[in-house]
Amino acid sequence: MTLEGRVVALAADREHHFSKPSRDQIVLVEGHGVEGDAHAGPFVRTDTSPVASPASQSAAGPSDPSELFATLVKADFEVGSGDLGESITLLAWTLSACRKVA
62 with 11: CB under 8 angstroms? Predict the structure, then answer.
């Protein structure tokens, strides 16, 4: 199986805010999340795959919000990467798909 897609933005914030500032790079720590992000840690679910775990979705986790962004823009909202609290903005694929390949 081949995955095609791209990371279009990264964000992290040491404090709890609704939106997160953009970053040029982040460090992903297995079982922890984004190093230095307020939403990282062993007790925070960051899996946003509705297929893998529908009851544990979190805006803090990886997401492919392109459709949501388009819908909000059509409704005259100004929304960009990190504005909804996501740390990784993906286009055309999800991290849950990567788990299935691994």
Answer: no
What are the pLDDT digits (tens) for 47-99? 444 444 444 444 444 445 666 777 888 899 888 778 888 888 877 765 566 65
Burial 40-71 (b: 16+ CB within 10 A, else e): beeeeebbbbeeeeeeebbebbbbbbeeebee
User: Which pTM was predicted?
Assistant: 0.62
Give the domain ranges of the chain: 6-101
User: Using DSSP, how many helices (H) and how many strands (E) does the chain show?
Assistant: 2, 5
Give the max Cα distance, the chain.
Answer: 40
Phi, psi for 99 (deg, rounded to 5):
-60, -35
In this structure, how many other beta carbons lie within 10 angstroms of the beta carbon of residue 10?
19
Q: 94: exposed, middle or buried (C-beta count within 10 Å: 0-12, 13-18, 19+)? A: buried
